[in-house]
Design goal:
The protein is an alpha/beta fold. The protein has twelve helices and 17 strands. Helices cover 23% and strands 24% of the residues. Strands 3, 4, 5, 8, 9, 16 and 17 form a seven-stranded mixed sheet that branches. A six-stranded parallel sheet has the order 12-11-10-13-14-15, covered by helices on one side.
């Protein structure tokens, strides 16, 4: 099994939280089957049309007409039951954007017609220290995942491969009017997964040097953020074919083939930060040797193991950290940052009828760099 990227909800984030939240008016079973989506029925992962119910709009809820949904590797993992906990029928998708249809009586942040997004989780306890600090992704009771999770009314959550969704307003984000909805979708997982650790580890100091390991959905966003923040960005990849895109399209300052020992040695102790987006197994010591004294390596991929010599830490006072997505406050900050700096993911927009082929291409890493489903114009 291929490793799950850390930008996708790990299995231990499945929520055990089951308290009834005030404002939830009814369960999905009480409503008609008025939501159309695409679902996997078994571990083959094959998706096909599926009708189901959403819960009624509670007083704190927002009902969103979905226009676009990004395709994340997590969609493949859970539709094919790679973690052994998939709940079928399974409607994937946690990079959701759309237009507000209706709001509950106590909702004041949003109104009908607003452009909004929904990310990798749609609920949390709202009481622990992490929820109070608006880093709900680390909720002590576990977040409720946007799909394949257990919602507060006991139903199984269903994601963005569908025409609408009902979400508590706390877990909705404003998409600036000037920002294209199709471009916004990948920001709700791939974007925030690299933005959050860059901010928390102060990778926002102009003139500092940043290394980015891997140039996929997460890595290309790290390059874009790094350049917007004024960093000197070096891309590391095993594939020399990515050089032109890294330098000419994404604007990286330098490209290094990580298997080239001479190129790697030339960068010894030259980087302030490294953000590691690679999902496959790879050595860590060679990269840690590239960090300056007190440098930081942040892991946002999820290889099967992380192994390095203790001396790699001790000799340079190196910090190794990890991160997975982000909370509501930093997600909104990231969306605003992208709009202000005109940062757009590289996407391939597809109709939902192409999604099974897209998932196969995802396995082969044949996408630059994120599929986005045009839900509004293809789901019918």
């Amino acid at each position: 099994m291929r490793a799950i990227r850390c930008g996708q909800i790990p299995v231990n984030f499945q929520s055990s939280y089951s308290a009834v939240v005030p404002g939830t008016m009814s369960s999905a079973s009480e409503n008609e089957l008025d939501c159309l989506g695409w679902a996997a029925r078994d571990a083959s992962g094959v998706l096909s049309p599926y009708k189901f119910s959403r819960r009624a709009v509670g007083r704190d809820d927002v009902s969103i007409k979905i226009t676009h949904c990004g395709v994340c590797y997590a969609d493949l993992v859970w539709t094919r039951n790679k973690t052994g906990d998939s709940k079928y029928p399974l409607v994937p998708g946690h990079e959701i954007v759309g237009i507000v249809k209706e709001v509950g009586s106590d909702v004041h942040r949003f109104k009908a017609g607003d452009h909004v997004g929904v990310g990798t989780f749609i609920n949390s306890c709202r009481e622990c220290e992490y929820c109070n600090d608006e880093i709900e992704v680390h909720c002590e009771k576990g977040v409720v995942s946007t799909f394949n999770g257990i919602d507060v009314d006991g139903t199984i959550t269903k994601g963005g491969y569908s025409n609408y969704i009902v979400v508590h307003e706390r877990y909705c984000f404003t998409i600036p009017d000037s920002y294209p909805l199709a471009s916004a979708a990948p920001l709700l997982c791939a974007g925030i997964t690299v933005y959050a650790p860059m901010m928390s580890h102060k990778m926002n100091q102009p003139g500092k040097s940043l290394g980015v390991i891997g140039l996929g959905g997460l890595g290309h966003m790290a390059v874009k953020f790094g350049k917007a923040l004024g960093l000197k960005v070096t891309v590391f990849s095993t594939s020399v074919s990515k050089r032109e895109v890294a330098l000419s399209v994404l604007g990286a300052d330098r490209f290094v083939v990580s298997s080239n020992l001479e190129q790697m040695a030339a960068l010894a102790k030259s980087l302030d930060f490294i953000i590691d987006t690679a999902s496959g197994d790879h050595p860590f010591d060679p990269y840690m040797s590239l960090l300056k004294v007190a440098g930081t390596l942040v892991l946002v991929g999820l290889p099967s193991e992380v192994k390095f010599s203790p001396l790699s830490l001790l000799r340079g006072r190196i910090t190794v950290s990890g991160s997975a997505t982000g909370g509501t406050k930093e997600t909104q900050e990231m969306l605003n940052f992208c709009a202000a700096h005109k940062i757009y993911p590289e996407t391939e927009v597809i109709p939902i009828q192409y999604v099974n082929e897209a998932l196969e291409r995802l396995i082969k890493r044949n996408v630059k760099y994120r599929f986005v489903i045009d839900v509004e114009n293809s789901l019918e």
